[in-house]
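Sequence only, no structure available. Ideas?
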Amino acid sequence: MVAHRTEYAVGNERPVGLESPLVRLARLETKVTAVAAETSSELSVLKEKLLTMAGYAETAVNRAVKALIRRDDDMARRTREEDELIDALELEIDQIALKLLERRPKGIELRFITMAMKISSNLERVGDEATTISRRVLELSQEPQLPQAEEVPRMAALAVPMLKEALDAFVQGDPVRARLLIPRDQQVDAVNAKLQAELAALMARRPSAISRCLNLMVICKSLERVGDHATNVAEEVVYLYEGQDIRHLEPDGGSSKSSPSPQ
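Reply:
I predicted one. Tokens follow.
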């Protein structure tokens, strides 16, 4: 049997070729610092892509509403075509988030990543609602405009800024602002209910206006859904920064969630 002999460095009791605990610790700290820096950078990229996506979604809804009022088919078609940009950003955000989740983040980082994925999902659906509006605009442009169409920009002026403010609360880490935003969805719901009732009554009086009324009802429902998605984002901001899940909670204990609008 061959005896194995351990060689020692002169004046040192450690085996030759082995690192001291201090060296290993220094290497570990360097690695941890590098990973932390990379994670911080990717979280910043995630935030930037969310803001870009939000900008596209907000622009898409505003453009679709302008196309309705101006009866501009080209503008409506452009809204539908650019929805692909929003879809692509959602995929990019999901890829970055999944890569970050592989590092097993904890606490606020974990909540940030998971909420970023949920926020991007809501933004993608806002883009879908803009596409729905533009599709209905193209149909409405073939017939005389109804007076109720003039009320649509007012509804958009209530719903779209909610989306921007929810994202501002996300970026600024302001859950109080997000909480204050949530009750405003009731104003959007009220305008939608009013227009839906008016259009239903008009269909009963004027059967010739049924197709136009239905298209406007879908547009109003899409804008109501934009308000719902903005509310979802605000609720996710509260969970991110306060760790409290306030979904489905209302002053009266009811639920604000609506069914998806027709396509």
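The helical segments are 21-70, 73-81, 83-101, 107-140, 152-172, 175-181, 185-205, 210-242.
Hope that gets you unstuck.
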